[in-house]
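Subject: two folds for Thursday's group meeting

Dear M.,

Sorry for the delay on this. The cluster queue was jammed most of the week, so I only got both jobs back this morning. I'm pasting them in the order they finished. Each block is the input sequence followed by the predicted structure tokens. Could you check whether the formatting survives your parser before we put anything on slides? The first protein is the one we discussed after the seminar.
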Amino acid sequence: MRIVFYLLVTGISAAVTFGLAIVIWKLSTKYRLYPKIRARDVHTRPTPRLGGVAMFLGMVVAVAVASQLGNFSIVFTEPGKVLGLGAAALIIVLIGVADDIWDLDWLTKLAGQIIAAGILAWQGVQVSTLPIGGQAIVSPYVSLIITVFAIVLVMNAINFIDGLDGLVAGVALIANGVFFVYTYLLQAQAQTEYFNLASLTTAVLIGACIGFLPLNFHPAKLFMGDAGALLTGLLMAASAILVTGQVTSEFATGPDQFTAALVPGFIPILLPFAVLVVPLLDFGLAVTRRLRAGKSPFTADRKHLHHRLLDMGHSHLHAVLIFYGWTLVVSIGCLAYMFVPATIATLGIAAGLIILTVITLAPLSKRKALESVAQSTGTDDTDAAAGVARYDGLDAASVEEDDLIRPKEART
């Protein structure tokens, strides 16, 4: 019956977020509280970007309700961590809202992220040990640097993939759902306290994503903006750090048979990266691409993974579902190591990745077929030529950007 209390706070977070999201959408539409469309944007009509505020308030209400439930009382015996998480979240939301309205420079945003991560570390939410053998990080300065770096990395990784309707909310919902199952089963097998800050944070974030997704799914009426994307990344990083320290403190020094029965020692490190595999991959590629071009790693462009999927020929919905699929296969595959032999889990991941690769690259195969038809029939085959253009990424990108830049009456 313990799971009922988590379902309760998740439901409250979802309901409040959904209600506030509708209010924010209506007010933003009425008073035109939305920015102009940028050349790199995928959407073609101005859309409000303040959905992150609804998510934040929904989670705040859910945590407030949890504080009044006796089962969660142990979570609030360390008020410093709870208040630190709340303060960091508030700073991130304020920075995100300011950026969504006034378009802050990257240095200001980065400074705000570092301050928020520093507050979390200062209040005890930090990487102090490794879950492999309970190895402690000797220097507190090293612990602080690692913690701040990890939190800022995850926040920006999540923010970087926020380019398609429902993408971040859906990926976060899948990733946090798998992560919650992991944390809950971890407590069940260890026979320790079910109610902890890591699981509570994950539960309210799941609720916020559920409540926000109906207004954010394609075609989106409301975006979460930087406030929502950075907040999602902050909470995912915090819950991962909290549960990693929990695994070490509770289990790493325990009997060897417990560790063997539960999960290999590397899973607490591997799983957070697994659920973030898509955002981290996109972040790494973007930073490498921009640094090689001599630009700031935070310079905006139209070369993210979701842009590339669209340019390959995938529809908006198909591109989002492909991201969902990659996240689902890798995160559930990693979790499977807890229940099945490593060989079976590895084969399952491999099979899933192969299927997703075929689906991802399918438009390229269709494009090759169209090109062959066009070459064999000559240039007079307008249908084949049109089909090739449909799957030409560069043409698609240039056409979309041109459509966004030119006034509507000038389009043909």
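Second protein, same layout:
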Amino acid sequence: MINERLLQVVAEWLRTTVLPKPIRREAPVVDLKRLRNILAVVGPRRSGKTYFLYQLAGELLGDGKTERADIMFVDFEDYRLQGFKPLDMDGLLSAFHQLAGREPRFLFLDEIQHVPEWSRLLRTLHNRGRFTIVISGSNSCLLGREIAAELRGRYRDERMMPFSFRELLAFRRWPLDRAALHTPERGRWLGIFDDYLRFGGFPETLAQPREQDKRKILQTYYNTNFYRDILDRHGSKARHVLEPMMRQLLEDYAAVFSISTFAHHLASSGIPGSKRTIANYLRYLEEAFFVIINEKFSYSPRRRMMNPRKVYLIDTGFGLLGGAFMETRGALLENAVAVELFRQQQPMFYFSGKHECDFIVQEGTRATEAWQVSWQVTPKNERRELEGLLEAMRSLKIRRGGILTYDQTGTRRVDGQTVHLIPVWEWLLGYRGRP
């Protein structure tokens, strides 16, 4: 006998679910009719993954050849699917067949990480050869070599983040006209960029007109989607470690996080917490897409693991829950660069030698770009910023790079080498300077 709850879930999709009007995202074009591998859309909660899946389903339904009965769309955060196990999938497919009169051709499985042994389930479904499978997930365990290996070449992933600056401009219906950068409209661009730095790119946040409402939404994401999720998934035994760690990251992001130093800080406050526990919770925060972690650049994986990490927030809007904007604006600017590189799935590191450089971008086995971030280059900090950038470029034989600023342009000539100053908001629109 088919479970009544499964019949309800399927019936709602077939009869009553209205696809929302999608917000177009700058995601790669996906031809589901030719898709052979499992497509995974992975990123933070509330970043638009479900809407993107709806967008893909809507495109199928709009081709004139695909019907609603060809698609099964399942949200595994539906309370009626609580406790769903891999063996229940056959019951779900049977419920669909009973109500639709045939088996689906396309499976959309939203927030698949809630299903135990989800990778084995996907492999089994894919082996049947009857379905085109699209999944979404809010845990970075769905990314990387381990899952690709487990699914044995049947898998490709696309990262779905909160809005990029380009997507925010499209959301605001502001034209991407480069000529406008050289007119008085430049100030309007800067105003939109200020909002992007301060409030981030979560779609629901952008839709709110008042700062206090944006802050409430971000506080909810912080409490529910990250803090609560981590405790539910990994247990609450180290709550006393997780709480101060997350508070510190809200106040001191875009900075080096030393596990040893934080362990000493806990001990001095009378809070027990081993280095292993701290390292584990830092990894959990990364897996939950709360933070982005950069290692110190080295060609040796062992050396990278031994050095402190730089930690960034997954969205600059979370800075609202920490310090004041004017006090943290330099960190927000650097954080925005980290988010964009992470969005582009570019391996990145920080450089530390005699001096420091904020970002080293790697392609394949080579370091190819070096970027320093400074709110403004002044006579007081110019030498430090330039020396860190140039040391990284010379040491790693990098030709492309520069200093990313808030709104400062120009060049600096040092030892026969020209360094470009590029506003971050122009860099976010695709301008990378000259090699």
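Two things I noticed about the second structure. The chain has a mean pLDDT of 89. The chain is about 45% helix and 20% strand.

Cheers,
T.
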